[in-house]
Specification:
This protein is mainly alpha-helical. The chain has one domain (about 5-205). It is built from ten helices and no strands.
């Protein structure tokens, strides 16, 4: 990444440079032309920690909202164009789960397909307000780390970047190793929640 050349190009856009970067972050969520990790690091690299974090968060939030809203508006046939049948079947329990905390935990897991999750959640019970809060807060930790990584590169603090990269690799590796177990646990969590909900309804019916 040649920071001077990229920065010069963005500066040539004037006020539109911020909008351009937000648009790039939004696009990578909706269409995934480049990995989100790259744009996240780019934010810190070009704009520093605070402004980079702000711009990335705005772009990610808007992109997540676009995915969620399109799926909510046009339904399952539209979502199926972006989410494979295998992935949809794997996370179909989310369409029936009303607990927001479980969805929040999924957004926290490194390597989890969060962009696809937005399409899936658009078919479920979450309101737009609930989704925006969950997705924004859930993505925030990862966005902070990526922005810091870009900031370290910006200031040539390669030892800090290497340390941060090492920690990220360990966390992602552990997430991949235990991903199946976590997803199985989430399904059990969902099933138990549904059972408790049915028992409550039965109790009210008897009352």
């Amino acid at each position: 990444m040649d920071r001077q050349r990229v920065r010069a190009f963005l500066d040539s856009l004037g006020p539109l440079s911020f909008i351009g970067f937000i648009g790039l972050q939004t696009l990578q969520v909706v269409a995934a032309p480049i990995p989100g990790e790259v744009t996240g690091v780019m934010g810190g690299f070009l704009y520093g920690p605070l402004l980079g974090l702000l711009l990335s968060t705005i772009g990610l939030t808007f992109g997540s909202w676009v995915n969620f809203s399109l799926s909510k508006t046009f339904g399952r046939p539209f979502a199926d164009r972006f989410v494979s049948k295998k992935t949809m079947a794997k996370y179909d329990y989310l369409l029936h789960h009303k607990g927001a905390f479980l969805v929040f935990v999924l957004f926290l897991i490194p390597g989890f397909p969060k962009d696809l999750l937005c399409y899936i959640l658009g078919l479920g019970h979450l309101t737009t307000r609930e989704f925006l809060v969950i997705s924004t807060v859930g993505r925030f930790g990862g966005t902070v780390l990526l922005t810091l990584g870009g900031t370290y590169l910006r200031h040539h603090q390669y030892y800090r970047f290497s340390f941060l990269l090492g920690v990220a690799i360990v966390v992602i590796f552990l997430s991949m190793v235990y991903k199946e177990k976590m997803e199985r646990l989430f399904r059990i969590w969902h099933i138990n929640a549904r059972k408790r909900e049915r028992e409550k309804k039965k109790g009210k019916g008897r009352g």
